[in-house]
Amino acid sequence: MEFALSEDQRLLADSIKSFLDETVPLDETRKVATENDTAVKQRMTEGLGALGVNQILVPEAHGGLGLAALDAALVHEALGFAAAPISFTGTMMASRAIAEAGTEDQKADWFGKLVNGEVRFGIAMTERVNVREGAGLSEEDGKLSGKALFAFDCDDATHIITADQSGALYIVAADAAGLTRNDMPNIDRTRMMSELLLDGVDAVRLDGENEPGNAAARVIELGRVLLAADTLGAMQNMLDQAVEYAGGREQFGRVIGSFQAVKHMCAEMVAEVEPLRALVWHAAHAIDTDPDEGPVLACLAKALAADSGQFVARTSTEVHGGMGFTDLVGLHYWFKRIGLNRQLLGGPERVREDAAKLQGWAA
Amino acid sequence: MDLQFSAEYETFREEVRSFIEANRDKAPTYADKGMKNPKRLAWQKLLIENGYAARTIPADYGGYGAEPDILKSRIIAEEFARSGVPGGLAGQGISMFVPTLLELGTEEQKKEFIGPTLRGEIIWCQGYSEPGSGSDLASLKTAAVIDGDDYVINGQKIWTSTAKYADMMFCLVRTEADAPKHQGISYLTFSMETPGIEVRPLVDMTEAAGFNEVFFTDVRVPRNQIVGKPGEGWFVANATLTHERGMLGNPNAAVERLFAIADIMHKETLNGERLIDNPVFRDRLVKLQSKVYAMRANGLRITTAATKGESAGLAGLIVKLQGCELNHQLAALAIDAMGELGALYGQSDYLRDDGTWQAKYMFDLGLIIGGGTAQIQKNIISERGLKMPREPKVQKQAAKA
Ligand SMILES: Cc1cc2nc3c(=O)[nH]c(=O)nc-3n(C[C@H](O)[C@H](O)[C@H](O)COP(=O)(O)OP(=O)(O)OC[C@H]3O[C@@H](n4cnc5c(N)ncnc54)[C@H](O)[C@@H]3O)c2cc1C
User: What is the pLDDT of residues B317-366, one digit of tens each?
Assistant: First the structure.
């Protein structure tokens, strides 16, 4: 038994982290959030692309790195830590979709394009989890119609992976005729969500799966783990910032970190962060290796990240006093990142219901 | 225990109700923006004339001049909340400065400021916190030095809500540099247009620029613009802080909010099911209802104590802590109930209630911090309420080590 990252995994995490440390200081995140500076965004996306982030989940046989969900999760942890105003969740979920549901020809074709950097994927699968406002897509003669809400990474994607009501997966071109994309601005100004309206849009069905819905479930399971990892990274940063601030700020002639009330807030945050880190790693490992426990662990990790994340987000803000509430220290970028992740691919109540169902505890 | 109001009060309630129904169309709405919007000021005037705002403030000072009657004030608050029609203006001038002047101001100050403040013609901001002095407010450094008939102020305030729009500031300054920290503070008032004042807006996490940094460079304020005596500012300020904490965590607002959320849960559906039919979300709602009703009943207890001139004790001390937390949790439920759509913030066809629930969720966290943080509230509850020993004072060097 060895519950630990491998040497390679540590190196991967470190290289992503140091790239982000250099490339994504808070000022750059601000530029994207407040001025929608696409040049900054592109530079970050390309830099991480050069480190191979797009290819992490692409099998070696198709020219990718052939790494595991745990590696993808480590990348997300680093992205969350940096509050990076870019996202690879779509591309990673797409890799999973193609691997699970693509035919051999489709794999060769799309993985090839992904490795070449020709394509960048968004994901429109919210309706596999939560249907609101009559959303959902249906297919007729190879064309998709309907609407998808809260699609992510679609604002700068070339292609979008989506599912119809049966759960079958499709790829559509982001500029296809009949497809309209509308912004859904949300609290996290670093990640734009989208409404997609489809009216007879040409779609490539991923034809390699026998039972529609299985691959979609695997894609969502991965997405949930990645979002949990992203929240974990954001929590770690908020905790670090709180500890640092508490060590410097003085009131009543003492550093506030010497007040037990403040120390306890920090200790309680650690007590949320550490178990979550272990659960996220376990879940990420298990969704590749343990078909029984993996799906359940993915739900549990997503739900715990939502709740622990919420606690750390507000507690770190409290440690910063009035400063935490302003834009000055920018703490709110992490706060809002955690807030958005909480709602994506199912809030905690919704995800726990899936966990109960998977274990036969609910109908 | 008797929860019935006597006939006199029931009659009064009827009067309030018929006033509201008869005048509803004159009330300003969300769309009537701006603190000095004519519709808002006209509404305030009408409310004062009828005794539904500034009720117990003497007519000489521009109030309605009724005998204090806590139950009647409560009935007014309840009926306005129930009807969804805005009550009298609030804000730091009316809720904090006016009560302070009534208690500690000179006759001249009362005559000059209370009337226009009540009518909404003078907007006030509270200049207390400084970059180095938040929880430890008494350590404030902004200095006011006597020069002839004036104080000359130099220094900086921060987190000053509404300073950008305010006409006047009530401000704490250090006048006696050598006195022990609580005894060297004075309470001054001055126009925000006094030369030497610079206001820089601060953006907060809701993206609004609700508060500000205020810089003072050789700002001259006549010596008679002090409230209380020189060196007594801490005492004067504590009179207002008590009023502020009474204002934060108001249970009537939580009751309103709870029903607004119940309403959302009847309207919103998730996977074809109304949220109110989802046992998990419904349980969260009802769980919060217990807390909201507990705080409402706690409020009745406080009201009763006040009518008898007694202190509400612990029941009063916990209001800010619990009330602000509860409001934050209510907003969290509204967001979760709307799920993905609850995360929206900014123009979208799917945005609910103008994004107000996210704004509330963040702003209420601000209120958990502002006006005395939750941790400071807990210190006050344990030390003053439970008479537990104070934390020993630690030498500065030791604390740093
Ligand atoms: C929304 C909002 C509106 C505001 N409006 C105004 C206004 O109009 N005018 C004005 O003057 N000010 C205003 N403030 C400022 C507010 O009063 C201060 O932010 C607050 O008192 C806390 O001070 P601080 O921000 O300096 O935090 P700090 O005092 O630095 O506190 C940082 C952390 O240390 C903890 N801490 C400090 N001392 C102790 C202790 N003894 N024991 C245990 N823990 C401790 C705190 O609880 C907090 O977690 C506002 C603040 C907010 C958030």
Answer: 999 999 999 999 999 999 999 999 999 999 999 999 999 999 999 999 99
> CA angle B154-B158-B160, nearest 5°?
110
Active-site residue, B10 included? no
Cβ neighbour number for residue B208 with a 10 Å cutoff: 13
A251 contacts B391? CB cut-off 8 A: no
A171: which 2 tokens? Answer: 């790829």
The enclosing domain of A134 has a CATH number of 2.40.110.10
Q: How remote is the CA of residue B288 from the centroid of ligand 1, in Å?
A: 27
B124-230: CATH topology is Butyryl-CoA Dehydrogenase, subunit A; domain 2 (2.40.110)
Dist CA B339 CA B360 (whole Å): 16
Single-letter amino acid, residue B67:
E
Q: Specify the CATH number for the domain of residue A75.
A: 1.10.540.10
Residue A277, C-beta contacts closer than 8 angstroms, at least 6 positions apart: A232, A236
The position carrying tokens 């490992």 is A285
Rounded CA-CA distance B158/B199 in Å is 10
Residues in chain B with CB shorter than 8 Å from the CB of A224 are none
The answer to whether residue A80 neighbours chain B at the CB level (below 8 Å) is no
- CA–CA separation, B6 vs B71, rounded Å? 10
Q: Does A344 touch chain B (CB under 8 A)?
A: yes
Indicate the Cα dihedral angle A230, A233, A238, A240, nearest 10°: 180
The interface predicted TM-score (ipTM) is: 0.95
pLDDT tens for B141-164 read: 999 999 999 999 999 999 999 999
CB atoms closer than 10 angstroms to residue A18: 11
CB A20 within 8 A of CB A84: yes
In contact, A248 and B394? CB cutoff 8 Å = no
Structure tokens at A118: 């020709």
Residue A208 pLDDT: 92
User: B147 by DSSP, 3-state: which?
Assistant: strand
